[in-house]
Every structure is written in C-alpha cells, then in structure tokens.
Amino acid sequence: MTDRRSVLATLTGISATAALGVRPGSLWAESEAPARARETIAVLGTGRFGGSIGKRLSTLGYPVVYGSRTPDTDRVRELIARSGPAASVASLKDAAAQSSIVVFAVPWEPVKALLPQLGSMTGKLLIDPMIAKPVIVEGYPFPAHTPMSTAEQLQAWVPDAHVVKAFISISYGTLADPARAGGPVSVPYAGAAGSAKERVAQIIAELGLEAMDAGPLICATHLENLLWFEVAINRSNKGLYELSLRKVRS
Questions:
Q1: Alpha helices (runs of H) in the chain, residue ranges in sequence order
Q2: Half-sphere exposure of residue 105: CA atoms within 13 angstroms, side-chain side
Q3: Does residue 250 belong to any structural domain of this protein?
Q4: C-alpha triplet 59, 64, 67: angle, nearest 5°
Q5: Phi, psi at residue 83, to the nearest 5°?
Q6: In a domain? residue 153
Q7: Strand runs (DSSP E) across the chain, as ranges?
Q8: What's the chain's Rg over C-alpha atoms?
Q9: Residue 244 class from Cβ within 10 Å (0-12 exposed, 13-18 middle, 19+ buried)?
C-alpha cells in the first residue's frame, strides 16, 4: 500500500494525519455490537494504519497478532502495550498462521514476494486496504496502469483464500477516532458474496463505522479510485474534504 498520508501531504499540503477520512457513522456503536466468538486477527504491519486498526480491534476483544519483521524493537513493543492484553506480536509468517483473518497493512509492491513466506492462506479471510503507487499526471495521481485492482490480483495469487477489499477510503486517524470526523463515516467494501464479506461488514460496524456493500471483488477498482478522487478534491480545493456516502430515504 502506497503511504496514503504522504501522497496527500505532497499533493495538497494538508496535514497528513488528518488525511483521507470519510464521515463516520455507525450501523451500531461498539457497545451495541452483538456478542459473538472473536476470531484471531493478524495485522501484517505495525505502521500507522496497522497500529490504528490493530488497537481498535484489540479493544473490541479480538485477539490481535501483529506481524512484524522487527518484533523486538522498542517501537513495536510500545504498540503492543498500547493495544492491550488481547494483542501480541510475532513474525509475519507466525502471525498469519495463528489467525483466520489477515489484514494486509503493508505496502502493495512487496506483497507478491511476501506471500510465499506466509504459508498456506487456504480458507483465510484476507482484508485488503492496499493500493498500488499511482501515476502522476500534471501533479494529480491516477490509478496505475494495471489490468486489475490489488484485491483481484491478491485473490488470483491466493485462490483458496477469501479476499475482501475494505478500509481503502479511511485514514488511520479517523479509524483510530471516528468521532474526529464530526459525523458518520462510511466504509465501502467489495468481495464475493458469502460469510467472508459478511464478517468484514460486521467488523466495520463493530468499529462504529457504516458498512457499505460496493459489490463483488471486481468493484474493488472503484474503491481504489475513490482514494485518488479524494486526493484530487483536496488538492484542487486547498483543504481537507472527506467523502460521505448516504442512502436516499424514500
């Protein structure tokens, strides 16, 4: 995943920390989330996005295993401490092996080489918030010239897993604190129909966000384009604007 905050900071001059939030809302608040068995979730990556989603999920009671190449560094240990007793850290391979859900909070470009190191992905739910580096034209980012979205490519590489595109249009800052947006936050997601997609919608709702079904995995391309649309709006208007999706009431 290209560092989305760096892209916004470079192209718009706005605070990278505030970038890319969409207005939060909630299908139900965290305190209202229905009780259910908590699957172990691997968060591959301990950067700002990985740390934000991992901490939130751990707070909800999910056992979270951060996957890191440097699990013994002070920075990673501090993240584990902030994430609470439900969080731990392991190598990337061991984190994936322990978990039924894997969040790829890593840059997109090394993923193909990384996958063989992770072991079998058969039956696992893979959540993809990644995006390929853009093509810059006249100072504006455009999608890379690729035949498919990162989610579709990931699914092609690991056909026995279940890939769902999600969290592409929300910043780590808004994910960490949805209230900062001053209103509902919509999180669109795309994937094949079935339990994997339903589980992602459930997680989004438990995080206090509004889950919006964007269709099958082929529609992941539209979600990636949302990011570049946000960047263009912010750059052109010299400020911070956040997307909000609303259902029209009849």
A1: 4-12, 48-59, 74-83, 92-97, 111-114, 150-157, 172-176, 195-206, 220-237
A2: 28
A3: no
A4: 140
A5: -80, -15
A6: yes
A7: 41-44, 64-67, 87-90, 101-104, 125-128, 135-137, 140-142, 162-166, 186-191, 210-213
A8: 17
A9: middle
Instruction: For residues 27 and 99, give the distance between their C-alpha atoms in angstroms, rounded to a whole number.
Output: 26
Helix (H) or strand (E) holding 172: helix 172-176
Map tokens 């440097």 to a residue.
Answer: 70
In the block, tokens 């964007």 appear at 214
What are the tokens at 50?
């990985």
Give dist(CA 12, CA 1) in Å, integer.
19
* Whole-angstrom distance, CA of residue 203 vs CA of residue 100: 14
Domain span at residue 36 reads: 4-237
Q: How many domains does the chain have?
A: 1
Q: What is the CATH classification number for the domain harbouring 190?
A: 3.40.50.720
pLDDT along the chain (250 residues), means of 10: 44 36 36 62 97 97 97 96 96 97 97 97 97 81 81 97 95 89 88 96 94 96 86 77 75
**Looking at this protein, which amino acid is placed at residue 131?**
I
pLDDT reported for residue 29: 39
Question: Which 8-state DSSP code applies to residue 245?
Answer: -
Cα–Cα dist 73/84, whole Å: 17
Give the C-alpha separation, 35 to 61, whole Å: 10
**Up-side HSE of residue 250: CA atoms within 13 Å toward CB?**
0
Quote the pLDDT of residue 182.
83
Q: Is residue 208 part of a domain?
A: yes
Residue 94, in any domain of the structure: yes
